[in-house]
Write a structure and sequence with these properties.
heterodimer, A: alpha+beta, Butyryl-Coa Dehydrogenase, subunit A, domain 1, 3 domains, 7-stranded mixed beta sheet, 9 strands, 53% helix, B: alpha+beta, 4-stranded antiparallel beta sheet, 3-stranded mixed beta sheet, 13 helices, 43% helix, globular
């Protein structure tokens, strides 16, 4: 697959940017921080209306049959404006799990709703720092799930969750219905992510894969999500770099704009390096879906994007000085999002280990 | 297979066939005099095989191919440790600029052919003790002398001047105007009377750079390659020639695999270092950095193939790769503990961590210091203002020294 965007892909980037810049604002996002369980419904309605929910799913189930490159471009723009809900990526992960590992009946049951956005999905593998536990706390018996998962992204609003459960000694990948699952909101620093603790008690679920294939499948789903998340992080980092640059060009001190001081301009030039490394890794990873080195490419994208977003958010606030730490300026929306995205889909420690393990496998 | 891939495959086979005669093993323990003799033979063979002057005009002995073919060949050649460094500057900048600005085409053609065959070497006399990053601050002067000019002053950091037959030089011809406006560009005969070359020994022990002194060196006016006072523009054109060059995401240090091998064979508290989180983190980070730079390069190549102009992100390579190499080399030495004291000053920086480490500072300064690269990104890419320059618009002879 080409690493140069074609005209259609460029149009996706331009159009999604235009729409999101018109519809998203910090004024609408800031209040969401002070409530739990609320996301920006305008963002999610836009995603559904524009077909972003259907973008990377098969045509026969209501999808548009595009791939990581296109969804990545949308996520990049969403990252620039701070996306108002986590479902674009959480539902995508759930849908890919069903598409790749489910039966035709399961696909017919879930994919059309996920493609239209009427059904919200999530992926719930992580137990604290362990993004992919060897032995899950959830149990899977007779198509029923029991147990508790904490900090599930989008868990407060999701209708189904892809889980990794323990089915009498073997790992099981399953799709669980959340209708009668008790969900408790996590009071978070980034509340529009709708993080929830989910308590499953005899919750209906269906098997997708078991044994070693289940674990491999789970890692693959995480990697697919990680590539899209990396695009979103890179978009956020780019927006922060630009905010820092714009402010440094207007704010004056000691008789000149502060962007003329090397301590400031070099810091912004360094951000450019972080952003471009992340962008290049994202584009590369999106083009490697299905290739043998997909996991390492995804890990590299994820690591460089997390570093870029954290650094850009941190430095942009620093360059803004006092105004940067005010609630009103809203830079903290990105600072918060940089951290929440850093943890969703596995933290950097997890991806470092995945990357090194795969590198050793490739060298051996 | 695309034409370019076919070109790469053919070049790779040819390069492989050169390894026994000119490769790393063949060069091991050669004196520098023997090595440069071998290098001249390699360059001649390369010329015969059609791999010299790949993107230069056919009428000057080049191959008339594109930039992509040149970068492709260079990336393949880089893998083998052939003795091509002596011609890197010569064929990289002075000779191309001679083709572009030299007036006497017969003379130019003769020089170009000899340079392509490795028979003659050119150097670039830009930096001075008083002006490195600030090139236009140079002090070496040329004064009218009969029908020609007389040069006095000193250049420094001149690569391979000790082996050079000719050089291109920027000098001050008018100190009464602002610094950029009083410069003129010449070529000089490095064997002329009054030229003295003195090698400088660098921290790592080698001496490829030199001081070059000019004492009443006479050059005729036909050596002039720019209008009088128009030298700065030609100097900038010289530095722009190699805009898209073959890059190395390892910063011209060892490959990451070598570090992984070291980590596998080293024990920390009785356990393989490769199982140590601190080491694993550095491997992962370094890989992600290299992967990003490689992806930037791949995208630039794809854009050139599609007839587009690559983005400015290509300028990040040296800045990011060399300082990463410096840190990874430090860690590699650390990892070896008391075995890490050993030092072979003939070892290659491409496959020896200590050599890589001790020569890394040179890489962060030569060809644009990190700080200058950051300025360029900030100003040219991001549109941030230039630094405050108190000498702007001030006649050169009124700038406080």
């Amino acid at each position: 697959m080409s690493i140069l965007y074609d005209e259609g892909q460029q149009a996706i980037a331009t159009e999604s940017r235009r729409i999101l810049e018109a519809r998203m604002s910090k004024d609408a996002l800031l209040p969401l921080l002070e409530t739990t369980g609320q996301y920006h419904s305008g963002f999610w309605d836009t995603a559904k209306e524009q077909g972003w929910t259907a973008l990377a799913l098969p045509e026969e189930y209501g999808g548009l049959a595009l791939g990581l490159v296109e969804l990545g471009l949308i996520a990049h723009q969403a990252g620039r404006t701070v996306s108002g809900a986590p479902f674009l990526i959480s539902s995508f992960g759930a849908a890919k799990a069903i598409e790749l590992y489910g039966s035709n009946r399961q696909k017919a049951r879930w994919l059309p709703g996920l493609a239209s956005g009427e059904i919200i999905g999530t992926v719930a593998f992580a137990e604290g720092p362990d993004a992919l536990p060897t032995r899950s706390q959830l149990t899977f018996t007779d198509d029923r799930i029991d147990g508790t998962m904490t900090g599930v992204t989008g868990g407060l609003a999701a209708d189904i969750a892809i889980v990794l459960a323990n089915g009498s000694g073997v790992a099981v990948l399953a799709v669980a219905e959340l209708g009668n699952v008790q969900s408790t909101a996590v009071q978070s620093f980034d509340n529009s992510r709708c993080y929830a603790n989910l308590t499953f008690a005899n919750a209906p679920a269906e098997l997708l894969a078991s044994g070693t294939p289940a674990r491999d499948a789970a890692l693959h789903i995480l990697a697919l999500q990680a590539v899209i998340t990396a695009h979103e992080q890179t978009g956020g980092a780019e927006a922060m770099m630009e905010a820092a640059r714009d402010y440094a060009l207007t704010r004056r001190a000691f008789g000149q704009v502060i962007g003329a001081f090397q301590s400031v301009k070099h810091r912004i030039a360094e951000l450019y390096g972080f952003v471009e490394l992340a962008r290049a890794n994202c584009i590369h990873a999106a083009s490697r879906d299905g290739a043998a080195d997909f996991i390492t490419a995804a890990a590299a994208a994820r690591l460089s994007a997390t570093e870029a977003y954290d650094t850009a958010a941190r430095d942009a606030i620093q360059i803004h000085g006092g105004i940067g730490v005010t609630w009103e300026a809203g830079l903290h929306l990105h600072m918060r999002r940089a951290r929440s995205l850093a943890i969703e889909q596995g933290n950097s420690l997890f991806w470092e280990d995945v990357l090194v393990d795969h590198l050793l496998g490739e060298i051996a | 297979m695309s034409d370019l891939e076919a070109y790469r495959a053919k070049a790779a086979i040819w390069l492989e066939s050169m390894v026994p005669t000119f490769g790393k093993a063949a060069r091991k323990s050669l004196s520098e005099a023997d090595d440069i003799a071998l290098a001249r033979r390699y360059q001649a063979v390369k010329f015969e095989a059609g791999y010299a002057g790949i993107n230069w005009p056919v009428e000057y002995g080049g191959q008339g191919l594109g930039h992509l073919e040149k970068v492709t060949f260079d990336s393949e050649e880089m893998k083998h440790g052939f003795p091509n460094a002596y011609f890197g500057i010569s064929l990289g900048m002075p000779v191309p600029i001679l083709m572009q600005f030299g007036e006497d085409k017969i003379f130019v053609k003769e020089r170009v052919l000899k340079a392509l065959r490795g028979e003659e070497i050119w150097c670039q006399l830009f930096s001075e003790p008083a002006g490195g990053s600030d090139l236009a601050g140079l002090r070496t002067k040329a004064e009218p002398d009969g029908n020609g000019w007389k040069i006095n002053g000193q250049k420094v950091w001149t690569s391979w001047a000790q082996y050079s037959d000719y050089g291109v030089i920027v000098v001050r011809t008018d100190p009464n105007v602002p610094k950029h406006k009083g410069l003129t560009y010449f070529w000089v005969d490095m064997k002329a009377e009054g030229v003295t070359v003195r090698p400088i020994k660098l921290a790592g022990g080698d001496s490829h750079v030199n001081e070059v002194f000019f004492d009443d060196v006479k050059v005729s006016d036909d050596h002039r390659m720019s209008p009088v006072g128009g030298g700065f523009a030609v100097a900038m054109a010289t530095l722009m020639i190699e805009r898209y060059v073959a890059t190395d995401s390892g910063g011209f240090g060892p490959p990451l695999d070598l570090f992984v091998e070291l980590a596998k064979s080293t024990l920390i508290q009785g356990r393989p270092a490769i199982e140590d989180g601190r080491i694993r983190q550095q491997i992962a980070r370094n890989h992600a950095m290299r992967a990003g730079l490689n992806a930037i390069t791949a995208r630039a190549m794809a854009m050139m193939q599609a007839g587009m102009t690559p983005g400015p992100e290509g300028s990040l390579n040296k800045l990011i790769s060399v300082r990463s190499r410096q840190k990874l080399s430090e860690l590699a030495i650390d990892l070896q503990g008391s075995d890490g004291f050993a030092f072979d000053d003939h070892a290659s920086q491409k496959d020896n961590w200590t050599s890589s480490w001790i020569n890394a500072p040179t890489g962060r300064i030569a060809g644009g210091a990190d700080e200058m690269l950051l300025n360029t990104i900030a100003e040219k890419v991001l549109g941030l203002p230039q630094d405050h320059r108190p000498d702007k618009g001030v006649p050169f002879n009124q700038i406080p020294a």
